[in-house]
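Suppose you are handed a protein chain with no further information: no name, no annotation, nothing but its sequence. What can you learn? This example shows the usual starting point.
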Amino acid sequence: MSDATIEVLDLRKRYGRTLAVDGLSFRVEPGTVTGFVGPNGAGKSTTMRALLGLDAPDEGAALIGGRPYHALRTPLLEVGALLDAAALHPARRGRDHLRWLAHSHGLPAGRVDEVLEQVGMETAARRRAGGYSLGMRQRLGLAAALLGDPPVLLLDEPVNGLDPEGIQWMRTLLRTLAAEGRAVLVSSHLMSELEDTADHLVVIGRGRLIADTAVSDLLAAASGDRVRLRTDARARAMELLTAQGATVAVTGRDTLTVTGLRAGRIVELLNADDVPFTEVGAHRATLEEAYMELTRDAVEFTASAGTDEVAS
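A reasonable first move is to predict its three-dimensional structure. Written in structure tokens, the prediction is:
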């Protein structure tokens, strides 16, 4: 497989007075699924568009296999992209859409059937795109991205519109594609999906890099030395552990998160004071928790406590 890398080097892009991307740099290595995340307005879409030659950088570079998109001799064979699954002519059949793409890039017609089978669209591809659900459009868009068997994939919200079975299928497919040596960059708002799919995470906010790290390292750092305690006597447990110097936070109806005391010491204290509990164990942060902590100061719009609406 040819050079399967994605590189963003000191990228800057301005639209009028808005600085959408401000000196952003990161690299996506072959063989990995990399999640690309950030609050609304962070610059994710601008970065993806720059990588695909849809927007020209004001400064810096956005490279596929070491080259800007406009320098790729056979783009479909070097990078596959899914940015807008709705960008289909409603009167065109799915199969015809792929056949036109294949013909324009000198690919054999048989390749169309291969990718349709890969994404589970063999039968539906004979129907006109105007009758497709969002999930079907996503699958067809992914088929188009895979048509040239490219070493690099750029996917924006690939599970959008998929049912639970489809989400599980997409998760497995992305990991399989990466295991074949491809660089896979996935922009998503669904941290729960990235937690089960991504090896690496690039987090941006206000056009700048916030984190570039392995998902496992980020979760370990976010989990820290916190201990999860489940007890029906929440108030008594809080009073007891706080008196011993711990920091205690309520995280559920019968759940506390304790910082500053080891799990063994917590058990000793609870038993000595006859405070009932059903669980004491290391707290494992979710990717969403870690993400929210990282981007706390980079959110463009926030809602005041007690409001019913959140600006987007």
